[in-house]
Amino acid sequence: MPFAITLRLDPISAVPIEAIWRKLAVDGIDTDRYQLGYAPHITLAIYPDETPFNRLRTALEDTSRNWQALPIGLSGLGAFPGDGTVLWAVPVVTFELLARHQAIQTALPDLKVDAHYRPGAWVPHVTLSGALPDPGPALMALLSSWEPITGFLDRVELVRFRPVEVLYSSACGLSVS
Questions:
Q1: Taking the CB of residue 16, how many other CB atoms lie within 10 A of it?
Q2: What DSSP string describes 75-121?
Q3: Inter-CA distances, 17 with 13, 20, 47, 133, 151, Å
Q4: What tens digit of pLDDT does each residue of 26-57 get?
Q5: Could you give the 3-state DSSP secondary structure of residue 148?
Q6: For 93-146, how does the pLDDT look when each residue is reduced to its tens digit (9 = 90+)?
Q7: Nearest to 20 by CA among 117, 136, 168, 145
Q8: At 174, is the pLDDT very low, low, confident or very high (cuts 50, 70, 90)?
Q9: Nearest-CA neighbor of 40 among 103, 98, 125?
């Protein structure tokens, strides 16, 4: 099972994403995210099974020690085409979000990261569906009720997946301004 380093949405901003997952499941369109059993998040990196767990955990602890909760806005919908189309919520990309991604890459420069999560290739996103052979019904369901979402990325985690197992979890501090 591969490892992933994620930033989770705060519980309040996660509610509309979870509602989307539920709607897609109830409408018989897609159950992937609903059944996954893991909170809405943005993945910063994915590493293969053989990656040393202790290296990942130590680097994540050291790198994220002083991270504050990061404001996030999800402004629209996106699609990754392929054998199946994956739908996702589009975050407003900020310097701070890119810096978090870069910090993980800098902390683990010699480890093999999934090609989609390398600097210059990473597309931040909150996944809304699994791979859909026909994304039309899902898009129609999402477009009819989509509204932008604002909140915070307030927790950093190291997980293994599928099924998702949280191996390390740390709350990001609250900004005092």
A1: 18
A2: EEEEEE-SSSBEEEEEEPP-HHHHHHHHHHHHHSTTS---GGGSTTT
A3: 8, 5, 25, 21, 12
A4: 999 999 999 999 999 999 999 999 999 999 99
A5: coil
A6: 999 999 999 999 999 999 999 999 999 999 999 999 999 999 999 999 999 889
A7: 145
A8: confident
A9: 125
